[in-house]
Amino acid sequence: AASRIAAFPHTTYSVSNQSSSKSIQAFARILRQSDFNASSMHRLFGAPLVKEEQCTATGPIYARPVTSTYPSKDCPFTFLRKQQQQCSNPDDDDEELLQQQDESKKCLAALFVLGFSLSRNDLVSSIIGSNETVQLMERLGLIRPCSIDPSLMVPCLSIFPLDIRNNNIEQKGNNETLSLFFVTDWHPTVLSTTTVGKEGAVMYIGPDSLALVANWPLVVSKALLSSNFPPADNTSTDDTIAATKTFKILDLCCGSGIQALSVVAILKSFFSVEAKATCVDINQRALQFTKFNAILNDIDNNHVETLVGDINDWDEAIQKHTILRPNGQKQTIPSPLDRVIEFAPYNIILANPPFIPVPTTTLVNNNTDMYNAESSSKRSLSDVISKRYGLFSMGGPTGEAVLESIVRIAPYLSDPNTSVVAIVSEFMNPESTLPERIAGWWSFHPASANKNCRANSTDVLQPDCTDSIGILFTNQIPLSAYVYASRRAGNDEQERQQWEEHLQKTGIHVVSPGFLFIYRFGKNQYLANNEKSRALNKHHQESASCTRLELHHVVVPKSSLGSVWTPHNYETVDFAIQKSKETIKRSIGSCND
């Protein structure tokens, strides 16, 4: 479909704004009736997972969609027309239903996972619901006739099936598999020759997206539903918490909504806990996908709010001491941030921010412009990257612009008693200066340092004075600047040199994918048992560094299944769960010594 998508003039397609909830829910039923889920995709593609039942989250992350340079435009699946379909036992209705289900599943996989255009006749003859389903997918904006050959239906968007399991022996709740679907834009290799929307493409579901979902036990159970963080009065049980509390989730840089919507579904399905999510992105197109995906996964829109916002602007507003609580006084808060504050504090803050350290140098290119950009011998390398990856990739010159803003504002918005901040990102120089930088971002709060603001003022938005425990997980073997530059530049030697030069100038020596989890457990809960702890707590309340972060860097060993972001690497998830439990227990114990 890549070459046919590129043929659409100035592509502005997206999920339809006019789609009714009933239409989206009808399509969700087609997906389920067709057995379109992660497990069935593994079987269809002949990619069985090692101990799939051990994985907390799975999806066809290995299935790269075909590009315009793919040698064959023919779909690898053969579809049987209805008049050709014959059961070995004509009287066996179950066999006929299974055959129809298999044909429909192959249609959906070919369209929305592999990215093949299919003839309308094949779709009408093979998909469950026949012509009504084809028309439904057109109305929803998922497919459209090819502008060159109208008999072909082109998949405008991808659909990622995601299976989530509650299979850890320490978890409570049911152990059923939760199957979700996420509509989003195609991988950059498909969209590299076209323009998508005014603000660019929304992030595809990549290894980082899947990996953060797979670590949901560290976000949900370990932070909120386990004995690691009991109620302050120590009278309630975990079951009481789950039964009485409505959790509030904030998803920053939400993209398709995969992080927030997955956690909402996990809480409801596995723990019978209601949750409300506020999803923020700078790209309005992303919020369209988030709303669509909420309905697609049977999540009531009353439980999901979407807001357009620039996280960097919010951080700047806080640093300028201009944020006032909504109490009738003059408001200087950007409108979306005002709304976010209204719902605060949040029990869970999730983020998959842009993290590519974008070079700002100019790339000289004497060859044909491979991205159909403006004809010029010079173009900004950041423009090349933006065209290739989209807004969701641009992390500023150091790759940390948005990451830093998120860590800075999180203490203002997270619940000081029971909350977790979970971030997936590429981390620069993780074994040298990074932990210190992260602790500094979290702990320094200009609003509380403002000499004109009282420490207990109710007019100024301030972080609560608490201690926090953070765990940074990165790979045992990070990527050198040379290897990282080579991977980002591909086969373009000139671009690789520009990448490497930029990394050297910004002091980036190594890069590692990883996770950052920050747990907050309350200012009086563990620091009120002795004179030393009380004095320490009082010092925190009176100092500018109001929320101290005790950050631990944990190196994740490479296992037989891969490293920290390797899809379906359940060994890494198990390692992270165990290490987080040990680290939190050790830190809490040291506070009470």
Descriptive labels:
single chain, 3-stranded antiparallel sheet
Briefly say what this structure is.
The chain is α/β, with parallel strands linked by helices. It has helices spanning 2-7, 21-33, 38-44, 93-112, 120-126, 130-139, 188-191, 207-214, 216-219, 221-225, 238-244, 258-271, 284-296, 311-319, 335-343, 381-389, 401-413, 434-443, 446-449, 481-489, 493-505, 531-542, 570-591; strands spanning 57-58, 118-119, 143-145, 152-155, 158-164, 178-184, 247-252, 275-281, 304-308, 348-351, 362-364, 378-380, 419-428, 467-475, 479-480, 510-520, 548-556. The longest helix is centred in the last third of the chain and has 22 residues, at 570-591.
Q: What does this 3D model show about the protein?
A:
- This protein has 593 residues and is of the alpha/beta class.
- It has helices at residues 2-7, 21-33, 38-44, 93-112, 120-126, 130-139, 188-191, 207-214, 216-219, 221-225, 238-244, 258-271, 284-296, 311-319, 335-343, 381-389, 401-413, 434-443, 446-449, 481-489, 493-505, 531-542, 570-591, and strands at 57-58, 118-119, 143-145, 152-155, 158-164, 178-184, 247-252, 275-281, 304-308, 348-351, 362-364, 378-380, 419-428, 467-475, 479-480, 510-520, 548-556.
- The strands form 4 sheets. Strands 7, 8, 9, 10, 13, 14, 15, 16 and 17 form a 9-stranded mixed β-sheet that branches. It has a 3-stranded antiparallel β-sheet with strand order 1-5-6, sandwiched between helices.
- Strand 7 (247-252), helix 12 (258-271) and strand 8 (275-281) form a beta-alpha-beta unit.
- The longest helix has 22 residues, at 570-591.
